[in-house]
Amino acid sequence: EAQVTQNPRYLITVTGKKLTVTCSQNMNHEYMSWYRQDPGLGLRQIYYSMNVEVTDKGDVPEGYKVSRKEKRNFPLILESPSPNQTSLYFCASSFTGGNQPQHFGDGTRLSIL
Amino acid sequence: SQKIEQNSEALNIQEGKTATLTCNYTNYSPAYLQWYRQDPGRGPVFLLLIRENEKEKRKERLKVTFDTTLKQSLFHITASQPADSATYLCALDYGNNRLAFGKGNQVVVIP
After folding, report:
1. Do A98 and B99 touch (CB under 8 A)?
2. Is the peptide bond before A8 cis (omega within 30 degrees of 0)?
3. pLDDT tens across B60-92, in order?
4. Cα–Cα distance measured from residue B15 to residue A83, given in angstroms and rounded to the nearest whole number
5. B3 burial class (0-12, 13-18, 19+ CB within 10 angstroms)?
6. Contact call for residues A61 and A47 (beta carbons, < 8 A)
7. What are the strands, taking DSSP E only, across A1-113?
8. Residue B36: what pLDDT?
């Protein structure tokens, strides 16, 4: 089954404790991206990647890092999480770009205390 | 500044009627516009994509229009059903393969 898989689905942690949210897709997509969704603000793009070893900032990249060492994986790294990063996070992928249908994961709900 | 506007008020509609949602944008010149459906606690699901040189696109009971002069897209659900109740998001590309989303418009179909 074609899918985008995120882990964990839920995480409660404390300020400053590094965490990684994994994202994997099995569709051989070149384009992957991360979004956060907050009430009243909608979906905002954090980072995106056009292909392996190519990443670019989205609209809200501060406090986040990403890497794209393999085509299928695109982890989101919070080196020193803060409470304002409490949010619902989505990973998405598409064949070649943002102008194509995006396949989303089921989301990761992060709470930073 | 760039802005994508969708109605923040939920649209309550009787089953069987046509639901129409609006997506307005400013300071963008997208070549593509997309519509997604999102259910509570789930990721958005792609529905339709329309290109700037297309006026209208249909898929089953769904229809999308794209007016680049008005900077507006309309999304129609004909013969609406309770299962159509969800939040619908419009999204547009704005260069460098970046994608911006509206905040979404909730639809509630009343049996």
Report:
1. yes
2. yes
3. 999 999 999 999 999 999 999 999 999 999 999
4. 42
5. exposed
6. yes
7. 4-7, 10-13, 19-25, 31-38, 42-51, 54-57, 65-66, 76-78, 87-94, 103-104, 108-112
8. 98
pLDDT for the residue numbered B92: 92
In sequence order, the β-bridge partners of residue B65 are B56, B74
Apex B55 CA angle, B37 and A95, nearest 5: 50
Which of A56, A99, A107 comes nearest B43 by C-beta? A107
CA distance A26 to chain B (A): 17
Asked if B95 reaches chain A (Cβ–Cβ under 8 Å), the answer is no
Residue A11 confidence class, pLDDT cut points 50, 70, 90? very high
The answer to whether residue A108 neighbours chain B at the CB level (below 8 Å) is no
- 3 state SS of A47: strand
B28 touches chain A (CB under 8 A): no
From A81's Cα to the closest Cα of chain B, the distance in A is 23
CB-based contacts of A106, cutoff 8 Å, min separation 6: A6, A9, B42, B43
pLDDT bucket at B105, cuts 50 / 70 / 90: very high
